[in-house]
Amino acid sequence: MSRIVVLTGAGISAESGLGTFRDAGGVWTQVRLEDVATPEAFARDPAMVRAFYDARRDAARRAAPNAAHRALAALEAAGRDLLIITQNVDDLHERAGSRNLLHLHGELAKALCAGCGARWAWGEGPMTDDSACPECGEPGGVRPDVVWFGETPYGLDAAYAALGACETFVSIGTSGAVYPAGGFVREARAAGARTLELNLEPSEVSRLFHETRLGPASDLVPAWAAEILGV
Ligand code: BV8
Question: Fewer CB within 10 A of the terminal residue: the chain, N end or C end?
Fold first, then answer.
C-alpha cells in the first residue's frame, strides 16, 4: 500500500497551459458544467459535449508536463512508495513518467460506448455520431471516457484503501470543491496521515490540512520532492 498518496487537480496542469475550472476565467466561467459535463447534457446535445471534449483533448495533446509533474515522476523513479490519484483527465502525469496513477475522473485519451460500456484508447480526430464502438459496432453512442457530475468516479475502492493506509497525503492544485475527492483529506487524517496542501490559493478544505503552502505547483512540488529525497 502506498505510504504517500498525492491528489492532483487542474492546478497542477495550469502552468502547462491547460485551464482550471473555478479560477477567474476558468472553464466553468466560459461554459456551464450542466451543458457539457453531465449525462443529461450528453443526451440533450451529444455534438456539443463531444466538441467540448475534442477541444480539450487537442489542447492536452499540445501541452507538455511541467516541473511539478516531473518532480512527482522523479519520486516514483527514485523508488518512493507513491500513488497519484488525479482528478485531471489530461495525460501529463503519464507523459512525465508517472505509472502508479489513478484517473478518478477518467481520461480525455479514452472513449466509452454509452451503449455497451466498452472503453478504448481514442486516437486523433473528433468524436462524431458516426463513430462506431469497436465492441458492439453501434454508432451514435461514442462518448468521452470521463466521469461527469452524477456519475460514479473510477477506482474509488482502491483510492479509499490507499487513503486508509497512507502515512502522508499531499493535495496539489485542487480547490477541494468536487466530491468525493474533496473529502479525501478527511479519510487520510482519520488514518493518522500527515496532510499537506500545495496550492496557489487557499482551497475550500485548507483548514483540514496540517500544513498549507501557497504558490505555483512548479515551485512547490519540486521543493517538496527534494525534501522527500533528502537532497
Ligand atoms: C458522484 C470530469 C455519486 C471531466 C469532473 C458529496 C459526496 C459525493 C458527491 C457529491 C457530494 N456533494 C456534491 C456531490 C455531487 C458532485 C459534486 O461534487 N458537485 C460539486 C460541484 C459540489 N460530485 C459528483 O457528481 C461526482 N460523482 O458523486 O457520484 C457517488 C459518490 C460517491 C461514491 C459513489 C458514487 C463526480 C464528480 C466528477 C465530475 N467530473 N470532471 C472534466 O470535464 O474534466 S469534475 C472537475 O472538477 C474536474 O475533474 C476537476 O479536476 C475537478 C475538480 O476541480 P479542480 O481540479 O480542483 O479544479 P478547480 O479549478 O476547481 O481548482 C483549481 C485549483 O488549482 C485552485 O484551488 C487554484 O488555486 C489552484 N491553482 C491554479 N493554478 C495553480 C494552482 N495551484 C498550484 N499551481 C498553480 N499554478
Answer: C
User: Which protein residues are within 6 Å of ligand 1, measured from CB?
Assistant: 9-11, 14-15, 20-23, 26, 37, 87-89, 105, 146-153, 156, 173-175, 177-180, 199-201, 203, 216-217
In the block, which residue shows the cell 461554459?
31
Question: What does the pLDDT look like over 93-108, one tens digit per residue?
Answer: 999 999 999 999 999 9
For residue range 32-47, what is the model confidence (pLDDT) as tens digits? 999 999 999 999 999 9
Distance (Å) from CA 149 to ligand 1 centroid: 9
Instruction: Print burial letters for 20-34: b (CB count within 10 Å at least 16), e (below 16).
Output: bbbbeeebbeeeeee
Report helix angle 67-77 to 217-229, nearest 10.
Answer: 20
Give, for 34, the enclosing helix (H) or strand (E).
helix 33-36
